[in-house]
Amino acid sequence: MTESLSAQESPSKRPESLLPDSKTRAKRRSRRKLRDRISFWGVSAAGFGVVFSLALIFIYLFYEVIPVFKGATLDEQRRFSLPAIEQNQQVERLWLERYQELGVYYTNDAQVRFFEVDTGAIRSEFELNVPEGVSATSFANGEDIGRFVAYGLSDGQIVSARHAYDLSFPDDRRFIQPKMEFPFGEDPIILDEDGQPIQILGVQASTRGTPRMGVAGYTRDERLVMAVLATQTNMMTGAVTVQANRATLPALPSGTNPTSILIDKNLRSVFVADEQGRVHYFDVSNLNSPRLVQTVSVGSPITAMDFLVGSVSIIIGTESGELSQWFLVRDDQNQYTLEKVREFTAHSAAITSLTPEYTRKGFLVGDASGVVGIHYGTSARTLLQKSVQSEPITGIAVSQINQRVLTLSASNEVAAFELWNRHPQISFRALWNKVWYEGRSSPEYIWQSSSASDEFESKFSLIPLTVGTLKAAFFAMLFAMPLGLLGAIYTAYFLTPKLRGVVKPTIEIMEALPTVILGFLAGLWLAPFMENHLPAVFSILVGMPLIMIGVAALWGYVPKGLRNQIPIGWEAVILIPFILFFGWLCVTLSPFVEIAFFDGSMRQWLTDVGITYDQRNAMVVGVAMGFAVIPTIYSIAEDAVFNVPKHLTQGSLALGATAWQTVVGVVLPTASPGLFSAVMIGFGRAIGETMIVLMATGNSPIVNFNIFEGMRTLSANIAVELPETAVGGTHFRILFLAALVLFIVTFIFNTIAEVVRQRLRLRYSSL
Predict the structure, then answer these.
(1) pTM, whole model, 2 decimals?
(2) Most buried pick, 30, 222, 623, 761, via CB within 10 A?
(3) Domain residue ranges of the chain, discontinuous segments joined by +
(4) Which CATH superfamily includes the segment(s) 462-763?
C-alpha cells in the first residue's frame, strides 16, 4: 500500500534531480525555436523555389515563342546603278540567285545580264535568239523557282529560256558560273498562226509528269491565243522536237484592254487582268473547247498581278494601293469560281512591282512612292512597310533563302538589303481563328504541319489541339470522377477497417502503373474489343449501376437473420459476383444483340445513320485514361473524407441521422475542399497525359466532341513532332507555343481550384 501511494505521488514531490532545471528548459526552448525557424524558412524557401521554377519555365517558353510574332526587318547594304543599261532599254524582270551573290535582269530587247550584287560588275551576258527584222513586243515569266521566261515577238512567235548556274570550287572558294538553258529549243516557236504581234504574254512551265509549257498571248488584233508545248526525245538519235497544241480562247468582253496574263502550273486555268480592274477566268483543261467561266471586279485598275508559290493563289495590286488574295473555290457541283479570300494592309500609292517568295506563301511589293511592303498570304500579316527611295519601285528580287532583297528604281538604281523574315506564317488570327487555306471551300481550323509536296503550306491552328486536349480530359473525367469520388466516400466511411486496408493500397498502387502500358493495352486490346462488342460496352456503362442499385434494394428483403451473418462494412463483397456475372453476360450476348437490333454490326449501323466511328476514339481514351486518373482522385478524396473529425459524424448519428444522411449533411460539406482538390488535380493529370492519348487515339487533329472519333492533344502533338523539327524553325517554336498554352491552361485551372478550395475551407471551417 505504501509503495502504491509513493508511486502516485505528484511530480512536485519527486526528487529534484529527475526534473530539468531552468537552464536546461531554456536551452530546450531555444532549440525548439531554432527548429521552428529552420522549418519555417525551409518551407518558405521551398515554396518560393517552386514559384521561381514555374516562373523560369514560363520565361523560357515565352523566350522561345516570342520571335514567332516578330515582324520583318530590312537593313540597307549598298546602292549602285544597274550596269550595262542602254538608253532605250528597260528592265523587264530582276532575279537574285540562292547564294545571294549574283543578280540577273532581262531587258525589253531580249538581253540577259548577270551581275555581282556586292560590286555591280557584269559577270556574264547573253542574247536570246530573236530573228533578224523581228522585235520583242512582250515579256512574261513563270514561277520564280522554275526561272522560265518567254518573249512575245512581232511576228506571232515566242522564244523561251531559263537562266541557271554551274557551281564550282576552285581554290576552295565557291564560284557561280551563269548560263542559259533552252528546254524547248533556242529557235522561236509559233504561238499565233496568223502572225500578229504578241502584245501581252503569259507563260508557265509544268514539271509534273512530262515537262510542258503553257503560253498564252493577246494579239494586236485583239485575240487570245494559247499553246501548250511538250518535248519529245528520239530514243535513237537523242534529238528533241517540240510539239505544240494551239487554240484560240473565247473573246473578251467588248472594250477590254488586257494588262497581264497568268497561267496556273497545271495548265488548266488562265487569268487575264484588264485596265478596268477586272479579272477574267478561263478554263483551258480541255484546250479543244476552252471557255470563259467568270469575270470578277477588283474595284480599281490592276497594276500588278502574280501567283504565290504553287500557282494557286493570285495576289492583285491596284492603282489605289490595295492588295488582295484570290483563288479558285470548288462548290458542291464541282464547279470552280474565283473568290477573294483576304485583303492586306493597303499602300498609300499604286502598286508597281510584285514578287512572290520561292518556297512560302509570302510576297514583296513596291509602290509608286518608293515603299517596300512585305506581306504573307495565309496569316494575312503585313510584316513591314518601309520607304527605301523617293522614286517608284519598278522591280523587286528576293533570294530563295529569304535573307536578301534587291529593289530597282525607275532610274535603274539597285539597292541591296539584308532581310530578316523568319516566321511570317504565324499570327494570332492564323493560330486561333478559322483560316481559308488554298484548296478549301471555306475557312477552317486545321493543324497539318508537313506534307510530301514542296509547295505545301503548313497549317498551324492550335484550336484542334486545344479542343482535343479538353475532349480527352473531359471523357476521362466523365469516367474517372464518379468512380473515384464515390469509391473514396464508400471506402472511407462505410468499409470495415480490414477491408479498407486492402482496397485503398490496391487502388493507390495502380498509380505506379506506367501509362505507356495502359496506352499499349488500350490501343492493341481495348480498342478492338470495344469495336467488336459495342452493345456490351453500352450495356455495361448503363446497366452496371442499375445492377448495383437493384442488388442493394433486394438486400433489404433478405431475412434479417441472414443479413446479420454479414459483418457491417463487408456488404460490398456481395456485389462482386453480380458484377462479374453481369459483365460476362453482356459480352456473351453482344453478338446476338447486334444481329437482332443492328443488322449484325453496330459500328456499321452507326456509320449508316451518319455517326463516324474510329476504332481508336475518345471512348477508348476515356476508359484508359480514366484508370490512370482514378487513383489520384480516389487517394486524395478518401483521405479528405476519412479525416473528417469523428465528433462531427458521431454527433450527427447521436441526433438520429442515418449513415447516408450524415454523409450528405456533414461529411461531404466538411470534406468538400479535399474532394474539389481531388477532382481538379485529376483534371490536371488528364490534361497533361501524353502516352495514353498518343497510343489509343488516331492522333487526328479534328474539332468535335464526338465520342466515337479520335483527337490529338497538345502534349501528344509535342511528343510526336518535336523530334522531327528543325531547331529554331517556325514549327519548332509553334510546338513551344503549344507547350506554353498547355502550361497556362493548367496554371489557370489549378489557380481556380485553389481559390475555390480555400473558400470552401473557410466556409466549413466552423464545423
Answers:
(1) 0.84
(2) 623
(3) 128-297, 462-763
(4) MetI-like (1.10.3720.10)
